[in-house]
Amino acid sequence: MTPLSRAAIIAVGSELLTPLRIDTNSLFITEQLNTLGADVVMKAVAGDDRVELAHVFRTALARADIIVLTGGLGPTDDDVTREVVAETLGRALSEDAALTERMRARFAARGYKGPMPESNRRQAMVPAGARVIENPNGSAPGLWIEERESLILLLPGPPRELKPMLTALLAGPLRQRAAGAPLLRRIVRMAGVIESQTDEALQPLYREWTGQTPPVSATILAALGQIELHLSTQAPSTDVAVAVLERAVRQACDVMGDAVFSSDGRSMEAVVGDMLVAHGYRIALAESCTGGLLASRLTDVAGSSRYVECGVVAYANAAKTDLLGVAPNLIVEHGAVSEPVAVAMAAGIRTRTSVDVGVGVTGIAGPGGGSAEKPVGTVAIAVVTPFDTRSRTFRFHGEREQVKFQASQAALDMVRRMLR
Amino acid sequence: MTPLSRAAIIAVGSELLTPLRIDTNSLFITEQLNTLGADVVMKAVAGDDRVELAHVFRTALARADIIVLTGGLGPTDDDVTREVVAETLGRALSEDAALTERMRARFAARGYKGPMPESNRRQAMVPAGARVIENPNGSAPGLWIEERESLILLLPGPPRELKPMLTALLAGPLRQRAAGAPLLRRIVRMAGVIESQTDEALQPLYREWTGQTPPVSATILAALGQIELHLSTQAPSTDVAVAVLERAVRQACDVMGDAVFSSDGRSMEAVVGDMLVAHGYRIALAESCTGGLLASRLTDVAGSSRYVECGVVAYANAAKTDLLGVAPNLIVEHGAVSEPVAVAMAAGIRTRTSVDVGVGVTGIAGPGGGSAEKPVGTVAIAVVTPFDTRSRTFRFHGEREQVKFQASQAALDMVRRMLR
């Protein structure tokens, strides 16, 4: 059996060619095939149309040695995947009587009234030479077809049917077709640095990683409020790949220092939460322009009631004074968006609720409200801990929701750096 | 000029063939091309690889009369879209000197130090006969290429560059290539009803819409906290399509009554915001399990400072008492998750901040904290207006973040129904 190294994924379904639905199955399939050492060289979406699907399938056949088709395996006339694949490969379709019997039994066991509709027998049609893949979570069985050096898999579209089937295949027959070099990934997440800085600082490591055996490939992705370093390697075994990536992660962490907030998949809010737990601290939030997003992100983490005491969204100036005790003359003197007001908000909520860490955020999320001196995106953030008070003014770019998110991320990052 | 009716979309970029990134540009592109009357017949993703991209592009050329390629237009060796398209079409690439000059001017205007890197000149290479599409938001210009009866568009990958460019093309030169039967869509959004109810209630309309000329096709999608009815029609003209859809929208609204919160694309938070403005009301939020999400959603809307006074996230019981004035014995007697406590929270914040509308939300977002009597997902919500007080207990399903979202949606929907 030939190892599989080049994969193509085809999602079938006219709904996936509208503005309303997107194929996300291919992300899971890619991750799984990568562990076999197979690279995905193309992905495509075809509608429920015999001619179009046949064209896309033929292109994939010419380019890949494993082709995974998802969807279009149902019992209706719209479900054309089985027929198109069989016809393109020149194989006859015939009913698998044993499969029909299993489908009838399943139908009866589910308590449906009356006999199974005859149309369901379409799902028992199998191309010559194909093997049936059982589907414990639905009526559409999968198909495994060997064609010369290539393997073609037909899997059902619903994720709750597809995922267990593919997982079982990977633990069983697909594992034997591994190219012998699993591709693994790790992500190093950073905040408070910009993409070009990061890229420059990591240049010597890129060279080292490219030159070593096995090489580590690195990609920097700038996401909102954070920079992600994606590391991947293809090694003779999973153990080697894990060790190689672990070393690269440690090297990147050494270079980037305290800009790195996570190398184990955790989000910023989870990292800050874990630090608060480790210190035995409780936190309270005083938010203006972030409008509750900071509190909402912290409370997205399960178990956050252990350390989130409360938050106040003081959108109006009166609320800043009444609920947080910010002196009105401070607002008059420095403006509502200023570090002194942010510090007063953080200190105010910290004192009023007797917590260890207080955070104050005040800014202009836009689109209105900016001035020449303080344009849209200007945000003052302050953090008060038992040992320290820090404040900083940021200038974020983007739409209202992007400014809100970046401000919440910068506030969390300030807390993280102060609790290190 | 031939009208365009069959579209193919190709996203270029190796990162789109990993488990980490997905092409979402194609959803926007599909929506826009549909308004021209063009159906998308295939979508594909190719990596930054000349051979693979050429194969996919040739397949698309054989199947479609408008092909949109996105991405791979940057200045580096990895950016191969221009070269592959030119080579496949047999057209020479040459530098557009005027374009280089405009790029240099843009580079200088942005305040970068030193001259533009020579590598950027790659972006000024234009295939013979192609027209340059200006990109006001980035350095990569787009390209418009006529090839026999087909039109090929090369657009940059970043959405904030791609979207304005495509929108401008649709208002201008692309509009003249419309197939004459534009496909238009409307979405009717509902809350407080379930999918099967909605489906049953709309059955007679489905039959009417299918039988009429031009027919209206309807799809129900259950999103978190809301049901969406997607209506589309393909009509001889945009005016006819608009009128046919408007009639269908009105029919659906008549049947579904006050469950419908939007038929013009607005979100629930925008709808509630507009109602608050119309009444001249200000609102304050007292949140427990939603953790600030309710305030954050309301303040996602531009201009919300006109009606959002403040919010209090009272996660701990002490905070409910201190900041909201909830009587401790009420919590002892009914439990923190109860309608009396929700009402006390709503009334407390309303009085303390002197606003018109107060909202209280208290519940168990999970995964911990549930009991037999009050399982995870139990949420009590209260709304107090100048004329009325209402409270209700919900039981939501799903993970922590899903419970939070559904609770915020139900709270907004209660406000909406009370302000109608």
Description:
Two copies of one chain form a homodimer. Chain A is of the alpha/beta class. The first copy, chain A, has three domains: 6-177, Molybdenum Cofactor Biosythetic Enzyme, Chain A (3-Layer(aba) Sandwich), CATH 3.40.980.10; 183-262, Alpha-Beta Plaits, CATH 3.30.70; 268-419, Maf protein. Helix content of chain A is 39%, strand content 24%. The first copy, chain A, contains 13 helices and 17 strands. Chain A has a six-stranded mixed beta sheet, sandwiched between helices. A five-stranded mixed beta sheet of chain A has the order 14-13-15-16-17, sandwiched between helices. Chain A has a four-stranded antiparallel beta sheet with strand order 10-11-9-12, with helices on both faces. In chain A, strand 1 (6-12), helix 1 and strand 2 form a beta-alpha-beta unit. At the A-B interface, helix 1, strand 2, helix 2, helix 9 and strand 14 of A face helix 1, strand 2, helix 2, helix 9 and strand 14 of B. Strand 2 (39-46) of chain A pairs antiparallel with strand 2 (39-46) of chain B.
What is the H-and-E element order of chain A?
EHEHEHEHEEEEHEHEEHEHEHEHHHEEEH
Q: Give the CATH architecture of the largest domain in chain A.
A: 3-Layer(aba) Sandwich
Number of domains of chain A: 3
Which word captures the global form of chain A? elongated
Number of helices of chain A: 13
Largest β sheet strand count, sense and barrel closure of chain A: 6 strands, mixed
Q: How big a fraction of the residues of chain A is strand?
A: 15-25%
Oligomer: homodimer
CATH superfamily of the largest domain in chain A: MoaB/Mog-like domain
Classify the secondary structure makeup of chain A into a structural class: alpha/beta
Low-confidence stretches of chain A: none
Largest interface: A-B, 73 and 74 residues
Strand numbers in spatial order across the main sheet of chain A: 2-1-3-8-7-6
